[in-house]
Design a protein that fits this description.
This protein is of the alpha+beta class. The protein has helices at 13-32, 35-51, 62-78, 114-117, 123-133, 135-141, 146-157, 162-168, 173-189, 201-216, 219-224, 244-253, 312-315, and strands at 226-233, 240-242, 263-269, 272-280, 286-297, 300-307. Strands 2-1-6-5-4-3 form a 6-stranded mixed beta sheet. The longest helix has 20 residues, at 13-32. The radius of gyration is 21 Å and the shape is globular. Residues 1-8 have low confidence and may be disordered.
Length: 323
Amino acid sequence: MSSATAPLSAPTAEEHLEDLRVELTGYCYRMLGSLFDAEDAVQETLLRAWRGWDGFDGRSSTRTWAYRIATNVCLDLLRGRRRRALPTDFGDPSSPLAASLGDAETGWLGPAPDAAVLPTADPAELVVLRDSVRLAFVAALQHLPARQRAALILRDVLGWHADEVARLLDTSVPAVNSALQRARATLADRDGGATGPALDEEHRDLLDRYVRVFERYDIDALVGLLREDVVHSMPPYRMWLSGAADIGRWMTSGPGSGCRGSRLLRVSANGDPALAQYRPDRAGGHRPFSIQLIDVADGQIIRLTHFLEPALFARFGLPDRIA
């Protein structure tokens, strides 16, 4: 029988386990707001599952059982910890001066590569899953109490029934519905329930132009792509900038001028196209510098979030240097 007509083989146990691992990583990422924390949580989940396998009574599916363990791991990690956020959640915008940069801090919300948090799914499911890992939505989730966060993800993102969520959280269906209602109200107040559409052809063309002018380091042209009230932040630094003019000054006469000569590689992060920036290295070539997430609306860039975390590059499957 030719390969064109051969029946598809059933997924192997290893493939099922990998799909479950990606599912759990996406769930833990939404809960915790950090890919590194999510990976640690999934490792702990699988370790607890292996240790507790003899006690699994089979009254639920192994998937449900794994989600119960993952939820408990996340709740343990979140206990007593401040929520993850973006710099724009704190204070007013800064002046585009080197003195505004301050010291690097920990505990920020971070990006995630699509491959790590989006399992294989049918197209209709994938739309919902992509929306639920977009940075604005994950940031809004961090404002919810941990159990409300779990209830909303399980019900509205993963499509679980209220009674399934109640059993997983060891609570009642009315309690789940109440938590879900409060969570939805909080997201609506923060405008976190609505997510932008996937990039259309016009937006992709805008991203192409951004890459060209950034690599040429044509700041006047770059500023021309920005909406007047654009916002620019650079975790792990608390400072953030507001306005195209200030961003232009930061890139020309501030520390941002060190980005001259950078190279940008395309990646997929948080459900959308993103960019990996390599800055020139005095030793030669280019070294990892930032993962850039770029939000667009009505043909202009409205938000730039540059995560200055070289350790992320390995998670995106990127090289540690380029020539």
